[in-house]
Design brief:
Elements lengths: L1 H13 L4 E7 L5 H12 L4 E7 L9 H15 L4 H6 L8 H7 L19 H19 L4 E7 L6 H10 L8 E8 L5 H8 L7 E5 L5 H12 L5 H11 L3 H13 L13 H7 L3 H13 L1
Parallel strand pairs: 1-4, 1-5, 2-3, 3-4
Length: 294
Amino acid sequence: VEMDKLQAAVEKARTRVPHLVMIGGPSGVGKTTLVDRFLLHAGERRLLSYRGRCYDREHIPYRAFDRIVEELAFELSQPIGKAARRRRHILAPAHTAALLRVFPSLAQLPELESNSPPAADPRIERERAFSAFADLLSQHLADRIGVFVIDDLQWADAGSLELLAVLTAPERQLPLCVLGTYRSEDVSAQLSQFLATDPDSPRTSHFLLGPLDTDEIVAMARSLIGDHVPDATLLNMAKLTGGNPYVAETLAHEIAAATVGAIREIDVDNLERARLARLTPAERLVAEAASVAG
């Protein structure tokens, strides 16, 4: 069902109607995996995909789009290839100077050159930059569908969410699909407000991923490690995962690492502890830091 919703969003973008899909759920529930799987199957459908991510305690303005714009600028700056051929047809949008002040990485494109002074009103300056970015995207995506994947929007800044709203506004004609993921347990006040704005818009889809049930966890584990593991071991493992696919995958690989003869003796409760014990001190520090960062 979720894959169908993602495909429907891309089909809307194909008609130059931008669409935003918000995918929420607990950490590790499979949001990014769902998007990755969709992009893998959709890779041959004339899509241009770009990826951004927000980080906790990061203070970069427009951080949800920072990596996307850098990737876009790098792609368009190449002297040869399909992107270079598309760049030849790009005209500098109105208010290019405002765009370059918001996203300096685009200055590497010779077509985007302007020294106009900023507007006295910061709000007008921001609106000009957003409009110019939408114009640039429209030209770049003249014969393609763009897909922006933005992970961890629970940490997005207000400027990023405002730009997101501009790109998917009712009056906008743009072949763009934005797939945004967020942790449902960490929703910020500004993201909550963003999600509550015009929830019935035909340009927005929103769904929550929940934990997998026991049968789904067992089936997932069997697909990873085969049929030689006793049902009781996998059922015990499924109870420990809380329905979390990431935890299930980690435990399944630990079970797979055991010898066939030792599988019946596996202490599932201590699998994660055993995995950490095998790490080098440096690897353990990285794992602990990742666990604190969430």
